[in-house]
Amino acid sequence: MSDSEEKHWQMIELLNQTHNFPTRFTFKVIGLNREALLTEVVTCVRSEMSIEDPPEYSIREARGGRHIAITIEPFLEHAEQVLAIYDRLMKLEGIVMLL
Disulfide check for 44: which of 12, 86, 88, 95 has CB 3.0–4.6 Å away? Predict the structure, then answer.
C-alpha cells in the first residue's frame, strides 16, 4: 500500500470514529469573493452526491468584501463522500481555506 493510500484509509477511519454515517456534515469554504464561487461549491457537492436540489448552505461576506465564507451542510451516506467532496472543492479557483 502506498503512503497516499495509507493516509486515505487513515482519514476514512478517523471520519468513521468521529461521525456516525449517514449524517449531516459541515463544510466551510473560504474564498475570494467572486460571483461564481457559490455556484461552483454547490455544484461540487451536488455532483458528488448525485442530487438535484442543493443542500442547506449559508454565505457570509468578510468585512471589506474581498472574501466570502460558505457553509454547506449536505447529508452524507459515508466517509468516502467527505473526502471526495474535499477533493473537488480544493480544485476550485480562489479557495483560501477549507474546513
Answer: 88
